[in-house]
């Protein structure tokens, strides 16, 4: 379908910002529309806009004089307004060209017809010329319509013009409250011309862009809402979805994904996205400008995704899995829905220019999310329990009085001397080394636990010094060890603290071979 626009369409909406323009921008591809603007129309639209701004500036100057802007000290504001109007008029030509480019509009030149043909239509007052013979530009536009019908024999054509006096027929509503008929009726002379060329069944006519869009929506997409704002929203969603599916998602696979984010099995070592299939649940939100006339749109969409996983070998693995004996892992493929989030950049009419996926994750209702939640709970509990045990065990380390080690040193030395024949020479030497004993005392002394009864510790030191096998219990009478009365502070005999050691030859000495 060719959609050919007249100058009145741009005069009604110079910036092409209405919902009807939005629908046309997004529907062009879905409905297989070719937007066509005759070069005469583009020139006339720019000139008409500039004339409108000249009129606005004149009206503004008169109003400012009436309101005494200069006398009120607002001359700078008046100058700024004049400059803004001048810049808008000067830049509109380039701006309109950019908008038409964003719409992928086809700008067609003036048809190659002899000038005498145009003159003949004017002097004969043939439509779209009026009764005075005026209508040169309208005639060129109509001849462009006929030429397009010949160039595109397989396409119908929709001509949109609110110049009802030159193009319209007798189909005008009886009052302003009644809507224009859709499609409208062309003037009888124009209908005759179409019939003569064999184009009668291929041409439709509408006064307003909104009328044309509504008619096409009812014909080509009756399932969509017919009010213009909702129609625009639906078509924009379709356009963005199609762009994401065709231009953005194909570039995301293959790629490595995060097992936790995608709610994969908790023992997954690594995972790779291989392909994205059927799409659903598209949603988007316009975030703001991205510079110039571009805008940024955040989107999310769910896609049925194929992934390959690497997992550790367990007792049972799927029959379809690929086993890797070297690192005790296996690979398997699964399919599940994943949510793809990203952004799109759009042009001045909302058509997407490019985009990127920024995150891949599971759906909120994915049941495997619970497995990761349970794993987190187990890990937290294990960590907390480890810390609790560590703190608890630290409380059981004995706190030994350094003076006790000092008191034990003579007895320990004597015991080691008595044991020396039974030990390897190097080990015996080490145990007998005073530096070793000092280090042992320092290490044992650094251990921390609840303090023992100081009275018991004193008794233990005394017992070691006097040769008693164990400290005196609280309140117990003094009892000499082995019937001997040793004064406090005297050295303890080896026999008092160690059992008697005898060798094989009853001499207490071992042959050298026994040490080996």
From TrEMBL:
<dbReference type="InterPro" id="IPR032557">
    <property type="entry name" value="DUF4935"/>
</dbReference>
<feature type="region of interest" description="Disordered">
    <location>
        <begin position="470"/>
        <end position="516"/>
    </location>
</feature>
<feature type="compositionally biased region" description="Basic and acidic residues">
    <location>
        <begin position="499"/>
        <end position="516"/>
    </location>
</feature>
<dbReference type="Pfam" id="PF16289">
    <property type="entry name" value="PIN_12"/>
</dbReference>
<protein>
    <submittedName>
        <fullName>DUF4935 domain-containing protein</fullName>
    </submittedName>
</protein>
<feature type="domain" description="DUF4935">
    <location>
        <begin position="3"/>
        <end position="167"/>
    </location>
</feature>
């Amino acid at each position: 379908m060719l959609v050919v626009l007249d100058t009145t369409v741009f005069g009604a909406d110079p910036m092409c910002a209405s919902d009807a323009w939005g629908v046309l921008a997004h529907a062009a591809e879905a409905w297989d529309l070719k937007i066509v603007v005759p070069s005469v129309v583009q020139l006339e639209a720019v000139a008409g806009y500039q004339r409108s701004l000249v009129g606005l500036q004149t009206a503004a100057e008169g109003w400012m004089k009436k309101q005494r802007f200069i006398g009120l000290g607002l001359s700078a504001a008046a100058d700024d307004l004049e400059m803004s109007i001048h810049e808008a008029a000067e830049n509109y030509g380039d701006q309109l060209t950019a908008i038409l480019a964003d719409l992928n509009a086809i700008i067609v030149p003036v048809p190659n017809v002899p000038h005498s043909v145009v003159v003949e239509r004017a002097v004969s007052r043939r439509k779209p010329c009026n009764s005075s013979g005026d209508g040169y530009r309208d005639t060129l536009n109509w001849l462009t319509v006929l030429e397009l019908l010949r160039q595109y024999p397989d396409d119908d054509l929709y001509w949109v013009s609110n110049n009802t006096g030159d193009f319209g027929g007798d189909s005008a509503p009886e009052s302003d409250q009644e809507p224009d008929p859709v499609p409208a009726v062309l003037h009888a002379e124009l209908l005759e011309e179409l019939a003569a060329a064999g184009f009668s069944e291929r041409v439709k006519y509408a006064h307003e862009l909104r009328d044309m869009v509504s008619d096409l929506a009812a014909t080509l997409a009756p399932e969509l809402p017919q009010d213009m704002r909702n129609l625009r929203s639906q078509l924009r969603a379709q356009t963005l979805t199609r762009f994401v599916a065709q231009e953005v998602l194909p570039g995301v696979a293959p790629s490595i994904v995060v097992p936790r984010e995608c709610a994969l099995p908790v023992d997954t070592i690594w995972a790779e996205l291989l392909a994205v299939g059927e799409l659903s649940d598209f949603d988007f939100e316009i975030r703001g400008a991205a510079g110039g006339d571009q805008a940024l749109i955040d989107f999310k969409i769910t896609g049925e995704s194929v992934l390959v996983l690497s997992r550790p070998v367990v007792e049972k693995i799927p029959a379809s899995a690929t086993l890797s004996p070297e690192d005790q892992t296996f690979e398997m493929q699964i399919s599940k829905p994943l949510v793809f989030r990203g952004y799109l950049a759009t042009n001045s009419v909302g058509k997407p220019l490019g985009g990127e996926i920024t995150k891949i994750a599971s759906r909120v209702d994915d049941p495997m999310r619970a497995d990761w939640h349970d794993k987190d709970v187990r890990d937290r509990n294990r960590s907390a329990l480890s810390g609790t045990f560590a703190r608890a065990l630290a409380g059981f380390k004995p706190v030994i009085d350094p003076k006790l080690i000092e008191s034990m040193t003579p007895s320990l030395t004597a015991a080691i001397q008595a044991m020396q024949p039974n030990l390897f020479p190097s080990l015996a030497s080490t145990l007998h080394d005073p530096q070793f004993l000092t280090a042992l005392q320092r290490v044992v002394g650094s251990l921390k636990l609840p303090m023992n009864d100081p009275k018991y510790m004193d008794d233990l030191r005394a017992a070691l010094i006097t040769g008693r096998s164990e400290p005196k219990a609280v309140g117990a009478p003094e009892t000499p060890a082995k019937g001997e009365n040793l004064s406090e502070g005297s050295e303890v005999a080896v026999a008092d603290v160690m059992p008697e050691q005898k060798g094989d030859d009853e001499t207490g000495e071992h042959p050298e071979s026994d040490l080996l």
